[in-house]
From TrEMBL:
Residues 154-226 form the HTH crp-type domain. This is Crp/Fnr family transcriptional regulator. It comes from the Bacteria. Keywords: DNA-binding, Transcription, Transcription regulation.
Length: 237
């Protein structure tokens, strides 16, 4: 990783496009930006690894991060795909335990890192703001429970539509409209859904035949947001 110049103040409006950050009290927002360091990562470079003890709070500002687990035997699982301006790293900060997953850059990526020591010192003086970090963790816990429920009760095509909708809206964190173009290769999407690439490809082509998406190399264009959302929210069939 390479340390970049001090984050410009102009970054604040972009950070506020994230629902969690936008709802944080103003003094907490300013403290996060004041203590932040901007780092660049190369494609495939780890932001942190499972078992690591560094508990910095982080936010993607460009590029993307893959969150999952990569085994020495080449096996992989992908839990989330994090894009600007989503936050991560709060769990280890809250429970003071090692990182639970690997996080690596997908292409050239820049990340804001708020050093654990500086943030802990500031929160010790302003303890009321620990609640904001708890709310960030709780939002992700709700998403995790929802994903587990979906695996148990929804057919693949419906789960796929829901995952595409969630990724395009930043898992509910993006305050603006959903993104139309998702940079997510099919093999990574299959890992997120816990199915084979062939099964994911078949379900994607079914949605494409309906005219709801368009498949490109490494990306998926969402053509009909409302249809995808209706399918993701509909009853299982």
């Amino acid at each position: 990783m390479k340390l970049l110049p001090t984050p410009p103040a102009e970054l604040l409006p972009a950070l506020r496009s994230d629902t969690w950050f936008d709802q944080c009290p103003g003094d907490f927002q300013q403290a996060l930006l004041r203590h932040a360091q901007l780092w660049s990562l190369d494609d495939g470079e780890a932001l942190y690894q499972r078992g690591g003890r560094v508990s910095d709070l982080c936010c993607v500002t460009a590029g993307a991060l893959r969150v999952g687990a990569w085994g020495e035997d080449g096996s992989a699982s992908l839990l989330a795909y994090i894009e600007p301006y989503q936050w991560l790293g709060e769990i280890s900060l809250l429970d003071d335990r090692p990182r639970s997953h690997d996080v690596v850059a997908d292409g050239p990526t820049t990340v804001l890192r708020i050093p654990e020591a500086a943030l802990q010192d500031w929160l010790a003086q302003h303890p009321v703001h620990w609640r904001a970090l708890a709310q960030l963790a709780c939002a992700k816990l709700r998403m995790t429970f929802m994903a587990l429920e979906d695996i148990a009760r929804l057919p693949l095509e419906q789960r796929l539509a829901k995952r595409l909708w969630l990724v395009s809206s930043g898992y509910g964190a993006r305050s603006g409209p959903p993104r139309r173009l998702i940079r997510l290769p099919q093999e990574q999407l299959a890992l997120m859904l816990g199915v084979s690439r062939q099964s994911a490809s078949k379900a994607l082509h079914a949605l494409e035949l309906r005219g709801w998406i368009s498949l490109r190399y490494g990306t998926i264009e969402l053509l009909d947001w409302e249809a995808l959302r209706a399918l993701s929210e509909g009853p299982s069939t």
